[in-house]
Amino acid sequence: xxxxxxxxxxxxxxxxxxxxxxxxxxxxxxxxxxxxxxxxxxxxxxxxxxxxxxxxxxxxxxxxxxxxxxxxxxxxxxxxxxxxxxxxxxxxxxxxxxxxxxxxxxxxxxxxxxxxxxxxxxxxxxxxxxxxxxxxxxxxxxxxxxxxxxxxxxxxxxxxxxxxxxxxxxxxxxxxxxxxxxxxxxxxxxxxxxxxxxxxxxxxxxxxxxxxxxxxxxxxxxxxxxxxxxxxxxxxxxxxxxxxxxxxxxxxxxx
Length: 255
Ligand code: NAI
Hints:
Layout: E1 12-16, H1 21-32, E2 36-41, H2 44-56, E3 62-65, H3 71-79, E4 87-90, H4 105-133, E5 138-142, H5 155-175, E6 181-185, H6 200-212, H7 222-233, E7 244-245
Parallel strand pairs: 1-2, 1-4, 2-3, 4-5, 5-6, 6-7
Bound molecules: 1,4-dihydronicotinamide adenine dinucleotide (NAI).
1,4-dihydronicotinamide adenine dinucleotide binds next to helix 1 and helix 4.
């Protein structure tokens, strides 16, 4: 083993949620590591910005404007990859808050459709492609620290993220014999559009609460998670599957 384990030259990665904070940083880092990067998101403008960043990092971006709840669209996008697919980073997701009593069917359906089924479809298409090409690939899913703790208002989100973890572990047991690895990342509070409170005082208050519980005394940046994805996608983690990596500044179960 050597640092070449982090060299993605000649490899192809597919990133969902690539227009967002964590997905964009991941796409850029994978490009910097030498990968050909396919970026998927429903945000067309954001995808263009990510494509420009990927190019700045030395990559040739491929973009797919799609909704991850559209199984056929995801299948078409993954099938359009030239040559074998080595990495799937299923990052797209949304936040939703409502108390248990206020949760409507449509809230639960929407959050599960995007945060769970969208990941399931990405995993299924990646596995089909990897098995067909005989590629010992790596799939990285995006869970959340929310799956470990109970937070008022986060029922739909945390249920979906717990389901992502179960999907990750189950799939790892099913595809390991093909040499395909499946791992999840459960980030703590990361500064992105998802955690933007749109008002400086509210932002400061929310981040201060996180910082108080963190031994590292800071919140995370998208690059913190991109590096975690890179590690799990790389040969450096070739003996790791069915695991959950928690880049969260040491925050365990704050409440
Ligand atoms: P973000 O809001 O910046 O990015 C999310 C991206 O997903 C956006 O570009 C959005 O357009 C895309 N997306 C949402 N629904 C989609 C759909 N139906 N089809 C296609 N694309 C869709 O948020 P962030 O923070 O980058 O989140 C990325 C992932 O990380 C999410 O799964 C989130 O739940 C997870 N996460 C984020 C944390 C944070 O503190 N920011 C903490 C723990 C997990």
